[in-house]
Write a structure and sequence with these properties.
By secondary structure, this protein is an alpha+beta fold. Among the domains are: 8-137, 2-Layer Sandwich (Nucleotidyltransferase, domain 5), CATH 3.30.420; 150-211, no CATH class; 217-249, no CATH class. Helices cover 26% and strands 15% of the residues. The protein has nine helices and eleven strands. It has helices spanning 8-22, 51-60, 78-91, 101-115, 127-134, 218-223, 232-235, 268-272, 329-338, and strands at residues 28-31, 38-41, 47-49, 63-66, 150-155, 161-164, 167-170, 179-184, 188-193, 196-202, 210-211. The strands form four sheets. A four-stranded antiparallel β-sheet has the order 5-8-9-10, with no helix packed on it. The protein has a three-stranded mixed β-sheet with strand order 6-7-11, with no helix packed on it. β9 (188-193) and β10 form a beta hairpin. It is elongated and about 140 Å long.
Length: 340
């Protein structure tokens, strides 16, 4: 069985699938000191097991046996690792091409059936015959399978998504802002509202992946038909024309034409156009003192009339104001004595 993750939920689901395939449960299973099962390694073979792993063992009724870490326990698991390497070299080299994990698991199951006809060196019977002899001594399966999924809680964001293991999954838009329980399994993500499932998605592997369903945003499309245009939701649905023309089942109605203004605005162009034979009532230019206006411009400037320091408003210094030459002390005395 191939999974897209090595999380604890995949570890438990592998056990449940294997017990179902065998038709029973072994009395003892040997493990390495893997993190989904072991919280702390103590002296010798004592281990602090995780609570979920203890629940799995209690449900199926088998005992766990852990190998010694390091070189001391290398001989305790060499046979298992050797068989895994043989299976990989025989059936997975070169790497098989598959469009999905389901197709890859079908190829692995076919290879497993092929190995049932193999005879291990030094033994007179095949693998299938040896397993048929051991199957009657296996423990029976419980009446109900073990729930391998992990229960989490996630808050729905403003984009109607829940974040689970750094990936985003859509829910109905009216759940935005609520905190909902989420069942996370090895291959599925299910969002619940009480005991009712409100959204279900295939689990995404990696990080920052959006798994969105357009049906969860229908109530938004009723009010905003063009909302998914160019958005992540409409990126995968645009070929079907969902966001180009909303279907009639959404209750979409064409927007009515705007009502005419009660007091229409007058046409400014018509008001400015001069009427033939009419007297112009537009106000004329404001009278300005002649000394403050240049001959070449009608714009008033704070500068003396044209003289030796003539100012050219149309030249490169347009808009600049020249400085008025200051009077000397002799000119001031002459003005006070003569009055000119």
């Amino acid at each position: 069985m191939v999974f897209g993750t090595q999380a604890q939920e995949a570890f438990f689901e592998g056990h449940a699938r294997a017990f179902e395939w065998f038709g029973g449960v072994p009395h003892r299973i040997r493990y390495d000191n893997l993190k989904p099962a072991v919280v702390r390694v103590l002296r010798g073979r004592d281990r602090v097991e995780s609570d979920r792993f203890v629940a799995l063992r209690s449900h199926y009724g088998f005992d766990s046996f852990f190998c010694i870490p390091g070189r001391g326990g290398a001989h305790e698991k060499g046979g298992v690792e050797g068989e895994i390497g043989r299976f990989r070299r025989r059936h997975l080299v070169p790497v098989p091409k598959a469009a999905s994990l389901t197709e890859l698991n079908e190829k692995v199951a076919a290879a497993d059936l092929l190995d049932d006809t193999r005879a291990i060196g030094g033994r007179p019977v095949t693998v299938a015959v040896a397993f048929a002899d051991e199957q009657p001594v296996l423990l029976g399966l419980p009446a109900e399978p073990f729930d391998c999924a992990r229960l989490l809680y996630a808050r729905v964001d403003t984009h109607a998504r829940v974040s689970v293991r750094q990936n985003f999954y859509s829910v109905a838009a009216h759940y935005a802002g609520r905190r909902l329980p989420v069942r996370l399994s090895a291959s599925r993500v299910e969002v619940l509202d009480g005991s009712r499932m409100v959204a279900g998605h295939d689990r995404a592997f990696g990080r920052f992946t959006d798994v969105l369903t357009l049906d969860h945003y229908l109530e938004v499309l009723i009010r905003k038909p063009g909302a998914p245009r160019g958005d992540r939701v409409g990126a995968g649905q645009g070929r079907r024309g969902v966001h180009r023309q909303p279907p009639a089942v959404l209750g979409h109605r064409p927007q009515p034409a705007r009502r005419p203004r009660r007091h229409p605005r007058p046409d400014r162009r018509a008001a400015r156009a001069p009427q033939p034979g009419a007297r112009s009532t537009a106000p004329g230019p404001r009278p300005v003192h002649r000394d403050r206006v240049h001959r070449s411009s009608t714009r008033p400037h704070r500068c003396p009339p044209a003289g030796p320091h003539r100012f050219h408003p149309r030249g490169p210094d347009r808009g600049a104001h020249p400085l008025r030459p200051s009077r000397s002390v002799v000119d001031r005395l002459r003005h006070l004595l003569t009055g000119s």
